[in-house]
């Protein structure tokens, strides 16, 4: 799978986007833990989903401490359902 980094979709810029799988991946730092940002993130995610995109969010900590598990989750989510 090929991902675009810092890709614009509508009025937003997503961290990673895979056009082939219509998948958006967001990596959230500490700023995403306050209420205002969480409301904004929900609005963003709703917009992406309204376009038929799947949105996955992971924390910086997930990436730094559990990268293998994160990659497995991403890979599983892109497999066709049987």
UniProtKB/TrEMBL annotation:
InterPro entries: DUF559, Endonuclease_DUF559_bact, Restrct_endonuc-II-like. It holds the Pfam family DUF559. Residues 1-77 form the DUF559 domain. Transmembrane segments: none annotated. Gene3D superfamilies: VSR Endonuclease (3.40.960.10). It comes from the Bacteria. This is DUF559 domain-containing protein. It comes from Marinomonas pontica. PANTHER family: BLL0828 PROTEIN.
